[in-house]
Prior knowledge:
- The structure holds two protein chains of two kinds.
- Chain A is built from ten helices and ten strands.
- Chain A is an alpha/beta fold.
- Chain A has two domains: 180 residues, P-loop containing nucleotide triphosphate hydrolases (Rossmann fold, 3-Layer(aba) Sandwich), CATH 3.40.50; 67 residues, no CATH class.
- In chain A, a hairpin with a 2-residue loop joins strand 1 and strand 2.
- In chain A, helix 3 runs parallel beside helix 5.
- The relative contact order of chain A is 0.16.
- By secondary structure, chain B is an all-alpha fold.
- The longest helix of chain B is centred in the N-terminal third of the chain and has 40 residues.
- Helices cover 78% and strands 0% of the residues of chain B.
- At the A-B interface, helix 2, helix 3 and helix 4 of A face helix 12 and helix 15 of B.
Amino acid sequence: MHNSVKSIGSASLAVKLTAVSKRYSDVTAIDNLNLEVGKGEIIGLLGPNGSGKSTLIKMILGLVKPDSGTISVLDIPLKQNAIGVKKRVGYVPEDSTAYEFLTGLEFLDFAGDVFQMGLDEKKKRIEEFLKALSLEGREGDMISSYSEGMKKKILIISALMHKPELLLLDEPLNTLDPKSARIVKDLLHQLALQNVTTIISTHVLEIAQAVCNRIAIMYEGKLLALGTMDELRQQAKMPNSALEDIFLKLTGTEDIQPIVEALSK
Amino acid sequence: MNWKTVLLLVSVNRKANRAIRGAKFRRYRDNKLFTYGLYALACLIGILAGGLIGNFYSASNQTVQTAVLQGTTYFLVSIPTIVLLYGLVFTQISQTQRIGAKVSVQPIYWFPISWREHTLASIIANLLGAPLLITIFISSALLVACVFMGLIALAVLTIVALLASLILASATTEIFKTLDVRLSGAITKAAGKSAIWLRLIFSVGSMLVFYLIYFSIYNQISPALLFESVAGGQRAVWFIPYVWPGMALSAFASSLWMETIFFSLATLAFAGAVFLIATHINTRFGLYELPAIKLSSGVYTPKTSLFGKLGFSPTETALMKKDFKGLTRRHELTFIFIFPISMLAMVFLSVLRMAQGDLPPVGISYFLFAIITLFPGIWIAPFVGGMLTGLEGSSVWYLFSSPISAKSIAKSKFFFVAFFSLSVTLICSIIGGIVFRPSVLFVAVTLLEAVFLIFSLSAISVALGIKAADFRGFFPFSRVIKPKWGLLNFLLCAVIGLAIVAPIIPYVLSVFAVSFLPAMPLLPEYYVYAGLFLSGIIAVAVTHVFRGVAVSNAEQVIAEAESI
Ligand SMILES: Nc1ncnc2c1ncn2[C@@H]1O[C@H](COP(=O)(O)OP(=O)(O)OP(=O)(O)O)[C@@H](O)[C@H]1O
Ligand SMILES: [Mg+2]
């Protein structure tokens, strides 16, 4: 069991981005970004709206092609074998839903087939997850009739059930109830012990602090800071501060009081 | 009632159509000229047409003038009922499209808007577009033509009646829309899995009724007599409130003043009543409630399905199963079944005639069998094949983010379309065979040609459908595929379809010719086998080539995933 964060040999990298950039006409979504994530790490992506978190995650999955730079995932250069990579990755999108005309169970069955799981394993995993995330009894309903959180749970299950080695989760917890969110968080910890890597974007700083080994703060497509909580405190020169203050300082929005005052007039 | 609110709501409703037209999202600007110009254009064309008719009238002699006057009166008297009918059809279509595109405008219940305002706005907005355009055209043509004929009073009254009919139609649609959403929700809640079939059968059933009426009208009444029979027909059903605008007009044309006043008032009262009912129903049920469809509640037992046993991989099987569910569960897609069903309605009508001792000649019944066997398949294959990839819609991210190869996508779509069309073809041909009793050889030839056509057209349309797919999150049929590619799909299917049946045509023609002119010589039988052989070769070649194209198109789409 190897879960060392400090000493990353290049052989055990889960994700490696070198000088990656991406522009959308007049917007620079990702700006010359370098990132190395070791196997078994949980990386939290923080950043203001539009700072490039989702774009980064989609690039690692191969959905968005970089304009320049190279990406390798699970030691495979991304261009070369996209399907081989996707087989070993679980992805939860930020805003999309599953096929609304299928029932939750049918969608999971579909996902299991797509990832070529065996019949018994599929049944076992689906039932476990449905039970763990309190979806039992609703799995036969059409997804179009689900609440936001239930839709998200189905996506989370479909991303986790085939035992991927890399999890790319784009704001997975923001609509989940406290119990289910806790289960997912604890599950991520357990999986990390089994060398499963997670990259998770979130706006909830507590989640980042509680779940992640290392935290990456993005701003306008650049990586402002990357490290453990202690390393971030050092970098911001704010030894005893909470993550919120560090985040606000690094992203240049520490003077909030005048704004609030102007708005309340 | 706050009229400003109503106008605002109408404009919101109008803008909802953007999603159906598939306008671009960023930096969207309304094209004012286009929005209002169309109505002006309809008016202008109407005035021109009216002027032409009026000129023709002035230039003709006494007898012609009397006949034209008589015809015009019939036309004027019947037109409100006709407007009502097309008003109903168009408003229903636009509602279905909107529900499909998920842009039915929901009342924002936390805003200060009353249900009466909401209902009225919705009724008016439903009429924008085709119904209003056609009515403006008819009205302006009428008015100008009637100036020449000296029927101005009747023409003005007709226009008022047209507007009344339109509003009646739209208000009725509004009632049906709300009830439909509510009812399908309620049915599905109560009935579980059968609800989906119930819904399908219900939609298909109403289409069947519509087509039966259409065919019976078509078979019995020539278009020239249509207006006269509508005018006469509406007198026979005077007790149906929807024909009251027409009744008022016809009373006016016959100078029956009491009746005119009575039916005018009755129309007003009825329109008011429909509006009140619509408002009431909206108040009661208007807040859209998603149907909680429960499909299964028993134990989950994953199975290897039929396709799996046929040698398809689990991924391909899963994709095909999903596509089948999508096609049968989505309310809006039942239109695909219209064509086969109208074909079967045609069979039904022929049976009725045969029952009256009216046996069709052999040539005709063979011809009908061929049409019934061939057409449903060659309608469904290009249609479904062209749409299938686009129907993934915004959920296409799942295909892109999963380990699904381009080959699996192309293969599963192709076989799905082919099997689906084949099963419909088989059902239709069995029914056709029982009714029309063609010879065994003829059945075999027709079925073989059907198979050739279906496989080739499926390959073509899937290949082009992948290219044509438009995954922008909403779901109007018109924008599931990019229009240019959709058109190309149909053109190519038409040309290659013709090429495939071409070798067999000489023999078929000679068979028909013999049945009408027994003196004609029948071509020797080996022509059939040679023709079939040629057809088969063309079909295999086309299928092979376009399956390759489909795979490479799928590769391209996956490579360009990010632009979606
Ligand atoms: N398909 C696209 N076309 C044009 N611009 C895009 C596209 N996708 C992303 N962008 C732009 O790229 C930038 C980064 O977007 P991204 O979605 O990665 O931000 P994010 O950090 O995930 O934001 P949020 O916290 O709101 O989810 C934004 O400015 C966005 O407008
Ligand atoms: Mg995002």
